[in-house]
Amino acid sequence: MSLAPHPETGSAPLPPEPRPDSTPLPGARPGRDPERAIKRGPRRQSAEAVAATQRDRLFDGLVHEVAARGYDNARVTDICGAAGVTRPAFYALFAGKEDAFLATYRHGTAVLLRLMDDAYAGAGPDWTTAARAALRTLLEVLASVPAFARMALVEIDAAGPAARDERDLLLSRFHRFFHPARPRSPLSPEEDDLLVTTVVAGIYGTLRLRVSQGRTAELPRLLPVLTYAMTAPFLGPGAGDRAARAADAGGPGVTAPCAVDPARPARGDD
């Protein structure tokens, strides 16, 4: 398989990505994971398989280095060292640090959204229950992989305009958890859409603040108040309070940072 340069970045394109629900969240493993060692000798892996393994290790290495050093201070050399991948191999996959950051962010948020989709769909037809399940998954998965949480919520601000555009696109995708099952607010359709945007932005800002303060492990504790913030504008304060109390009751945690059910198609982006 020949890899021609990407027309925009000039770098070789990534090999076909594994489905986002078949791999852990970037940063959940060390880049130098011995289980992903490149096989040598007569049974060595194909060039495509080697490139895919190197890419995944670089995803993990980048998350850990950016979380530890900050985007500006994390050098390509550091990322390669954390992943156990050479600089020539890095540049065969990415045009540079920004390109690698964007690819890691897109891949990681695809995994996160699939996890939330699965939780939302598996919670049943009641919108309040489904929305709370998706929100709980978001909080607990981010808490379980704090390096990704910092890279994706905090350091993305330093990664340039393209990264911030990706962040804005992600926030628009969170609207899928508000449509079409939830009750409408008493506002006009245009104002109702703006209300959803406001709720999403408020939740995101709260998470970013906690992560920037080094309090990522506390994110699951925010479930009751964020459930209220997510539901009360549409259901009213009484129903929002009941939803928050149900969230406070707890239950089995979401601990695996890896999405499941690879056979089921992903939900479309709303």
What do you see in this structure?
- The chain is mainly alpha-helical and 270 residues long.
- The chain has a domain at 112-248.
- It has 10 helices and no strands.
- It has helices at residues 47-69, 76-83, 87-93, 97-122, 127-144, 146-153, 161-173, 189-212, 223-235, 237-248.
- Helix 1 crosses helix 4, helix 4 (97-122) runs parallel beside helix 7 (161-173) and helix 9 (223-235) packs antiparallel against helix 10 (237-248).
- It comes from Micromonospora haikouensis.
- GO terms for molecular function: DNA-binding transcription factor activity; transcription cis-regulatory region binding.
Oligomerization = single chain
**Net shape:** elongated
Percent helix range: 55-70%
Number of helices: 10
Using only C-alpha atoms, the radius of gyration works out to 20 Å
Mean pLDDT across all residues, rounded? Answer: 83
Return the structural class. mainly alpha
Order of helices and strands: HHHHHHHHHH
Q: Beta-strand level of the residues, as a percent range?
A: under 5%
CA-to-CA gap between the ends? 35 Å
Q: Main beta sheet: strand number and arrangement?
A: none
Low-confidence runs of at least 5 consecutive residues: 1-21, 259-270
Tell how many strands the DSSP assignment holds: 0
